């Protein structure tokens, strides 16, 4: 009797569970998080980026050009166009109570982007990303200006990496 001692049901349940797990795993794709699919590097290298209006937007643009081309510079034959609008906000967080002067703050760099295929005008990806960099405001004025600039540069670099990941994801699906 196969079912009288319970071993037959147990084997059937194990076999069914094994087949179900294989079915679920067969639909999965395992790929490193920050990798790009095959052929995406060439697509990224053919993305032209809009001209910048200020220093921080230029910094984001330069980082994106470097990340898209792998250090090869701007593309001469663009298949895609990335429209980029960057905004910077300085937010004082910690005020000195005696002097009412900010001693620490946040630099928030945000960007709206729109990736368009140049020949058809079809929008492939669009979105808004932002990054935050913390900054300490020293007493000396030049040191304060330099600290703010360094924080803007750090935030611009992080923002470019986020946008690159979004664009690579959009181009990898095509």
From TrEMBL:
<dbReference type="InterPro" id="IPR007485">
    <property type="entry name" value="LPS_assembly_LptE"/>
</dbReference>
<protein>
    <recommendedName>
        <fullName>LPS-assembly lipoprotein</fullName>
    </recommendedName>
</protein>
<dbReference type="Pfam" id="PF04390">
    <property type="entry name" value="LptE"/>
</dbReference>
């Amino acid at each position: 009797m196969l079912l009288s001692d319970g071993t037959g049901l147990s084997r059937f349940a194990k076999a069914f569970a094994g087949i179900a797990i294989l079915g679920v795993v067969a639909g999965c794709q395992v790929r490193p998080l920050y990798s790009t699919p095959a052929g995406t590097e060439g697509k990224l290298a053919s993305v032209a980026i809009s001209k910048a209006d200020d220093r921080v937007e230029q910094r984001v643009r330069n980082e994106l050009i470097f990340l898209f081309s792998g250090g090869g510079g701007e593309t001469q034959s663009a298949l895609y166009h990335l429209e980029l609008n960057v905004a910077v906000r300085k937010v004082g967080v910690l005020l000195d109570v005696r002097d009412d002067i900010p001693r620490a703050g946040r630099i928030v760099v945000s960007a709206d982007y729109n990736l368009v295929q140049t020949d058809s005008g079809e929008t492939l990806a669009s979105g808004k990303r932002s990054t935050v960099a913390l900054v300490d405001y020293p007493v000396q004025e030049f040191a304060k200006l330099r600290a703010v600039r360094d924080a803007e540069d750090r935030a611009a670099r992080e923002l470019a990496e986020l946008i690159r990941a979004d664009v690579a994801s959009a181009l990898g699906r095509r």
